Amino acid sequence: MKEPLAAAVREPPPCGLQHLRSVNMASTMSASTSKRKVLPWIEGTLLGVFLFLPLVLEHYWVLFTTRIVILGLLALSFDMVWGYVGILSFGQALFFGGAGYSTALLATKLGVTSALILLPAALLAGLLISLVMAAIILFGKRSPTAVFVALGTLTGSYVVERLLRGWSYVGGQNGIPSLPRLTIGTMEIEEGIGFYYLAFGLLVLVYVGLRWAVRSQFGLVLAGIREQEERLAFLGYQTQTYKGIVFCLAGMIAGLSGGLYSFHEGFVGPAQLGPVFSTQVALYSMFGGAGTLIGAVIGTGSIEAVGYYVSQYWETGWPILLGMLLLAIVTYRPAGLISLVVSERERIGTFGGEAVSASDNIAERCHEHA
Question: What is the pLDDT of residues 236-264, one digit of tens each?
């Protein structure tokens, strides 16, 4: 990955990707003069809080927090496709619910309960479903527009939801209830602290992997696609291939989340893969701050917590109040809650100080030649 990108940086026309990054960085630097790194502090604080939280919470709140951790995985998957390559996917719930149904069928029809089989099966189910969607929507002769991808994934999610609602083999409207507990060997993973740390460990692993990816040369290409896809294509990068890779990677993560969620709740139903749930996932990421990873986790926790407390006082109208709050945040803070403390420059990333200096020099040379 590094050689083609390095060649694009070194050789003429060197004004392409690096020039793009220079211009982008220059604009973001003017927006904020702060050079403090806030994201690592936020990530470290949340890691410490979530690590010890179940030790001081009652059983009900451990279950509630586990649900947030699992949904945080799903929000990360949306943040990858929307926040890093600009794909507005409303199909994340399809991958989530599809994996949930697949693992539920394995457990109820074949008696498989081992987490070492079901969780990889959930990953595989998410990958296969997203691969089919990518083949239909992304890998056409022409590069699809954002609207086409959004409507295509939304339609796919809606069609599969309606199909499952009428399919008695998978429970129809009622879904598949009473799922058995996950096991590791002879040990059952009960809902509570054990399940929490399983989900939390997977969330941390996925988060660290994604953090490394988006700050690597691969992430630099993704940032270029997000900001100026035409220029990346002009330099010879197969942008649709990169977008397809991220789309399928996000599908795998959503599938893992769906498998965990089904066995934590003991139930999987058609609503878990419908467009309404997909929209809710999009709100998680946008509310917290797309393109930061940690913003998706913060958004998930914030919306779930606010939704729960508001519903205690206004049982029927709390979605209206929550919707107004979300609308206000998206309208007046389009970069999400995370933008209150994280600068635009840090949100986009520097990809290393030396690389930025080199790109600045290239930009200056381009300007001189022009």
Answer: 888 888 999 999 999 999 999 999 999 99
